[in-house]
């Protein structure tokens, strides 16, 4: 039995609340159970310096956790002068995931920064950030389209992410912290609406895992992402 009493293939309750940040061009408060992430998308009128003059835009992300997002207070990374390796890895993952479904030339020479701030963490913060970040990005593009900044939305597809793992010898979907902290295998899957894989992160934490177990985790992830895609579409309806 999972600590949460969920079935092996059962997601936590998931919700999306749009337009929660007054000044951002796009925003979404996403909740995966007790994991809550505020995602905002901000339009900048010029691309990064290294991309100027190339006729295309850029989508990037920044990720941070509030000091009391976890059981004990964590120090703000700004006080140390630089983000941790974990933070850099997660924000690069979010950026890659969102760019994978964006037509960058259709943006023109502009940049959108998607900020993902973890208000409360209970496992799966990166997957929640990607899934909610897509909604914030979509609404930013719609804001641009409504003002004739772009003719059509540069988004080419949906994208969502979910965690899976081997917990007490069984494949489980959408790990919370109680499972993630002791899982034998921890994996994150980023999948597009058309079923394409953007990224797979899988690590043996306790004992090695087999290719058969990886296939079972992927099948679970696809089920979870299908549910997330349906919820994204419902939130936009």
From TrEMBL:
The keyword Manganese does not apply. Gene3D superfamilies: GHMP Kinase, N-terminal domain. Keywords: Nucleotidyltransferase, RNA-binding, rRNA processing, Transferase, tRNA processing, tRNA-binding. GO terms for biological process: rRNA 3'-end processing; rRNA catabolic process; tRNA processing. It catalyses: tRNA(n+1) + phosphate = tRNA(n) + a ribonucleoside 5'-diphosphate. It holds the Pfam family RNase_PH_C. Its EC number is 2.7.7.56. The keyword RNA-binding applies. Phosphate binds at residues 86, 124-126. InterPro entries: ExoRNase_PH_dom1 (IPR001247), ExoRNase_PH_dom2 (IPR015847), ExoRNase_PH_dom2_sf (IPR036345), PNPase/RNase_PH_dom_sf (IPR027408), Ribosomal_Su5_D2-typ_SF (IPR020568), RNase_PH (IPR050080), RNase_PH_bac-type (IPR002381), RNase_PH_CS (IPR018336). GO terms for molecular function: 3'-5'-RNA exonuclease activity; tRNA binding; tRNA nucleotidyltransferase activity. Residues 10-140, 159-224 form the Exoribonuclease phosphorolytic domain. Phosphorolytic 3'-5' exoribonuclease that plays an important role in tRNA 3'-end maturation. Removes nucleotide residues following the 3'-CCA terminus of tRNAs; can also add nucleotides to the ends of RNA molecules by using nucleoside diphosphates as substrates, but this may not be physiologically important. Probably plays a role in initiation of 16S rRNA degradation (leading to ribosome degradation) during starvation. HAMAP family: RNase_PH. PANTHER family: EXOSOME COMPLEX COMPONENT, EXOSOME COMPLEX COMPONENT RRP41. Homohexameric ring arranged as a trimer of dimers. Belongs to the RNase PH family. This is Ribonuclease PH. It comes from Methylocystis bryophila. The gene is rph.
């Amino acid at each position: 039995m999972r600590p949460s009493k969920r079935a092996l293939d059962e997601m936590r309750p998931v919700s999306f609340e749009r337009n929660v940040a007054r000044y951002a061009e796009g925003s979404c408060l996403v909740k995966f159970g007790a994991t809550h992430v505020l995602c905002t998308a901000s339009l900048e009128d010029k691309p990064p310096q290294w991309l100027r003059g190339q006729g295309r835009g850029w989508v990037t992300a920044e990720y941070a956790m509030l000091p009391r997002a976890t059981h004990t207070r964590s120090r703000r990374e700004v006080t140390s002068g630089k983000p941790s390796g974990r933070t850099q890895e997660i924000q690069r993952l979010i950026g890659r995931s969102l760019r994978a479904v964006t037509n960058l030339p259709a943006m023109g020479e502009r940049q959108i920064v998607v900020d993902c701030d973890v208000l409360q963490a209970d496992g799966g913060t990166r997957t929640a950030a990607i899934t909610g970040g897509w909604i914030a990005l979509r609404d930013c593009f719609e804001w641009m389209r409504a003002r004739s900044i772009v003719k059509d939305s540069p988004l080419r597809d949906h994208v969502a992410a979910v965690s899976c793992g081997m917990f007490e010898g069984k494949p489980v979907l959408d790990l919370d912290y109680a499972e993630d902290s002791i899982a034998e295998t921890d994996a994150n899957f980023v999948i597009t609406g058309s079923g394409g894989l953007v990224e797979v992160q899988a690590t043996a934490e306790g004992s090695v895992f087999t290719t058969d177990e990886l296939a079972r985790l992927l099948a679970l992830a696809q089920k979870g992402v299908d549910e997330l895609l349906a919820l994204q579409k419902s939130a936009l309806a």
